[in-house]
Amino acid sequence: MSLLVVGLSHRSAPVSVLERAALEPGERGKLLQDTVGAEPAAEAAVLSTCNRIELYADVDKFHAGVAELSTLLAQHSGVSLDELTPYLYVHYEDRAVHHLFSVACGLDSMVVGEGQILGQIKDALAVAQEQHTAGRLLNDLFQQALRVGKRAHSETGIDKAGQSLVTFGLEQLAAGASVEEWARGKRALVIGAGSMSSLAAVTLARAGAGELVIANRTLDRAQRLAESLDGARAVPMAAVAGELAAADVVVSCTGATGLVLTASDIEGAAGGRRREAALAVLDLAMPRDVEVAAHRIDGVRLVDIESLADAEADAPMAGDVEAVRSLVAEEVAAFGAAQRAATITPTVVALRTMAADVVAGELARLEGRLHGMDDKLRAEVTQTVRRVVDKLLHAPTVRVKQLAGEPGGAGYADALRELFDLDPQAVAAVSNPEQERQ
């Protein structure tokens, strides 16, 4: 089996395609179940964020796996396969590992170095575990990606290369001023209470926003968030229209599949505002919460995912990015070596089990031929025979594990099975102990 990832992101697809292909939260579980139900895939995980949708799977056939995963992404996203295919990218084996580790470090983010992706990777693993579609490979992969991402942020200055998408978006609205200077005293409306909206609320509160209102479809979640911030209050979604008219800044990031704020809503709230007092709107949702026509309304400054992508393309890159790339390359090599070495373990265990069975059989035969052996002599003979076998097997098994960890080492397990005529079912039983007990 081999690791395969098929996906699309802000680097491969226009925002118009990304927002149409965005998965609803409940759709992720269905996609995972359909993936492991397909013939080429044994494990599956989906990383779905505001600017990427990636399906990871452990497959036994590359071409069939690519075709199946592409078809499943199209079916569950609602975008036809013909339309989706030009924007899909494919990574396989070590390149797939390299891709996820780069994503975890923020190298592939819209804002280089942002740390929110780690929470999204953690969530992707949790969903796969809940759906029982993450086996040994994907559990190891995603847990190691989280460790690599944390290492990148603690050992390098990648954080200096960019900010979170929230901070970057607020900086675009501030247009050259610091977020603290720009937001101080402003009345802010945050729509949504998820991770991105919560971060926006916290950022605005720390920047000194004069009034902070949290609106959410589930009022309890809005209230919990508001209670954690001094001076904030929660309102139901039905109150958004009234709050919008009084707001200076609006940040929206919900999981809604339709528009939350239409151009008419925005125009009504912005009516009569002076240019210097324009309504600042930050739309971080995918698909978008705010109708794109709001860009053309006088008295409104709208920043959305598409404009953030354009702004990021011109942002300077920090030198620490190269340090992270080196770290990723090092971690990919180590992960590959560990995975290749792990593939030989069931064969080594099966070999040692067979050797132990041979020793037990020969000792039993010896016992039948040498009647009257006392317990002390029997123990000495048993220990000697086992020691001889262990010494004979020690060097080959240690060396074969070392060789299996090197590039091209996958064939050593096959060679060991062939040389010692190991029963394939015995090796499989070591690899899948749960299945063997059923």
TrEMBL record:
<keyword id="KW-0627">Porphyrin biosynthesis</keyword>
<dbReference type="InterPro" id="IPR036343">
    <property type="entry name" value="GluRdtase_N_sf"/>
</dbReference>
<dbReference type="GO" id="GO:0019353">
    <property type="term" value="P:protoporphyrinogen IX biosynthetic process from glutamate"/>
</dbReference>
<dbReference type="Pfam" id="PF05201">
    <property type="entry name" value="GlutR_N"/>
</dbReference>
<comment type="similarity">
    <text>Belongs to the glutamyl-tRNA reductase family.</text>
</comment>
<feature type="active site" description="Nucleophile">
    <location>
        <position position="50"/>
    </location>
</feature>
<feature type="site" description="Important for activity">
    <location>
        <position position="99"/>
    </location>
</feature>
<feature type="binding site">
    <location>
        <begin position="114"/>
        <end position="116"/>
    </location>
    <ligand>
        <name>substrate</name>
    </ligand>
</feature>
<dbReference type="Pfam" id="PF00745">
    <property type="entry name" value="GlutR_dimer"/>
</dbReference>
<feature type="domain" description="Glutamyl-tRNA reductase N-terminal">
    <location>
        <begin position="6"/>
        <end position="156"/>
    </location>
</feature>
<comment type="pathway">
    <text>Porphyrin-containing compound metabolism; protoporphyrin-IX biosynthesis; 5-aminolevulinate from L-glutamyl-tRNA(Glu): step 1/2.</text>
</comment>
<feature type="domain" description="Tetrapyrrole biosynthesis glutamyl-tRNA reductase dimerisation">
    <location>
        <begin position="324"/>
        <end position="422"/>
    </location>
</feature>
<dbReference type="InterPro" id="IPR015895">
    <property type="entry name" value="4pyrrol_synth_GluRdtase_N"/>
</dbReference>
<feature type="binding site">
    <location>
        <position position="120"/>
    </location>
    <ligand>
        <name>substrate</name>
    </ligand>
</feature>
<comment type="subunit">
    <text>Homodimer.</text>
</comment>
<dbReference type="Pfam" id="PF01488">
    <property type="entry name" value="Shikimate_DH"/>
</dbReference>
<feature type="binding site">
    <location>
        <begin position="192"/>
        <end position="197"/>
    </location>
    <ligand>
        <name>NADP(+)</name>
    </ligand>
</feature>
<feature type="domain" description="Quinate/shikimate 5-dehydrogenase/glutamyl-tRNA reductase">
    <location>
        <begin position="184"/>
        <end position="309"/>
    </location>
</feature>
<dbReference type="InterPro" id="IPR036453">
    <property type="entry name" value="GluRdtase_dimer_dom_sf"/>
</dbReference>
<keyword id="KW-0560">Oxidoreductase</keyword>
<dbReference type="InterPro" id="IPR015896">
    <property type="entry name" value="4pyrrol_synth_GluRdtase_dimer"/>
</dbReference>
<dbReference type="InterPro" id="IPR000343">
    <property type="entry name" value="4pyrrol_synth_GluRdtase"/>
</dbReference>
<keyword id="KW-0521">NADP</keyword>
<dbReference type="InterPro" id="IPR006151">
    <property type="entry name" value="Shikm_DH/Glu-tRNA_Rdtase"/>
</dbReference>
<feature type="binding site">
    <location>
        <begin position="49"/>
        <end position="52"/>
    </location>
    <ligand>
        <name>substrate</name>
    </ligand>
</feature>
<dbReference type="GO" id="GO:0008883">
    <property type="term" value="F:glutamyl-tRNA reductase activity"/>
</dbReference>
<dbReference type="InterPro" id="IPR036291">
    <property type="entry name" value="NAD(P)-bd_dom_sf"/>
</dbReference>
<feature type="binding site">
    <location>
        <position position="109"/>
    </location>
    <ligand>
        <name>substrate</name>
    </ligand>
</feature>
<dbReference type="InterPro" id="IPR018214">
    <property type="entry name" value="GluRdtase_CS"/>
</dbReference>
<protein>
    <recommendedName>
        <fullName>Glutamyl-tRNA reductase</fullName>
        <ecNumber>1.2.1.70</ecNumber>
    </recommendedName>
</protein>
<dbReference type="GO" id="GO:0050661">
    <property type="term" value="F:NADP binding"/>
</dbReference>
<comment type="function">
    <text>Catalyzes the NADPH-dependent reduction of glutamyl-tRNA(Glu) to glutamate 1-semialdehyde (GSA).</text>
</comment>
